Amino acid sequence: MDRVCAVFGGSRGIGRAVARLMAQRGYRLAIVARNLQGARAVAGDLGGDHLALSCDVAKEQDVQSTFEEIEKNLGPVNFLVNAAGINRDNLLVRTSTEDMLCQLQTNLLGSMLTCKAAVKTMIKQQGGSIVNIGSVVGLKGNPGQSVYSASKGGLVGFSRALAKEVAKKKIRVNVVAPVHQHRQAFLPGLGQEQEQEQEQEQQTHTVSQPWSHAAWVGVGWGCLTSS
């Protein structure tokens, strides 16, 4: 049976790096992104029999239709990677409700909906693996990223709880938390102490690269590659 991997947010960054690694491991890939052109570009670069799809992960019907399309063209999903995410850096008092909802819906609700659809499929297959891409910011917080931190922190809690829910179904759930990302400029309104703290973090943390996180995602599919 073909091994099928769905990478949501697979058109760029960590998602694209994961897609390349999974293709090397012999998976048939569904590259899913809001930007269909970007998804097609990645699928084309990978060569082989891969699928490119557009999906708004914050819409349950859109997610369900996407999984149906994947199963129709590639087969049932064995491995899910949730790399779709957005960030709207700003101080909380300057963040609009629209920007709050946008981040929470994409970064947290979206992963919940894709996991829900994937788990239904994986239960039928008697196993599978899910990796959610979080952020170290969700664990330690960061000034100017309160909403983003909340969305990624919520993803950690969700992943831990879901892992316990589906363990008996031989479904593995993991979350990868990329290290601090370099930020090009300070947010207006930060105090001097916060700016100094931010500058120190940028100097002491290695700027992470997408391919380095892709390697960590490999831990999540150990149960599949060993079969």
Q: How would you summarize this macromolecular structure in one to three sentences?
A:
Belongs to the short-chain dehydrogenases/reductases (SDR) family. Keywords: Fatty acid biosynthesis, Fatty acid metabolism, Lipid biosynthesis, Lipid metabolism, Oxidoreductase. This protein has 227 residues and is of the alpha/beta class.
Features:
fatty acid metabolism; lipid biosynthesis; 9 helices; alpha/beta; SDR_fam; oxidoreductase; 227 residues; 6 strands; 51% helix; lipid metabolism; Rossmann fold
Characterise this structure.
The protein is an alpha/beta fold. The protein has one domain (4-221): NAD(P)-binding Rossmann-like Domain (Rossmann fold, 3-Layer(aba) Sandwich), CATH 3.40.50.720. It has helices spanning 13-24, 36-46, 60-73, 97-125, 137-140, 146-166, 192-204, 210-217, 222-225; strands at 4-8, 28-33, 51-54, 79-82, 128-133, 171-176. It has a 6-stranded parallel β-sheet with strand order 3-2-1-4-5-6, sandwiched between helices. Strand 4, helix 4 and strand 5 (128-133) form a beta-alpha-beta unit. The longest helix is centred in the middle third of the chain and has 29 residues, at 97-125. The chain is globular, with a radius of gyration of 18 Å. This is 3-ketoacyl-[acyl-carrier-protein] reductase beta subunit. Pfam families: adh_short. InterPro entries: KR_dom, NAD(P)-bd_dom_sf, Sc_DH/Rdtase_CS, SDR_fam.
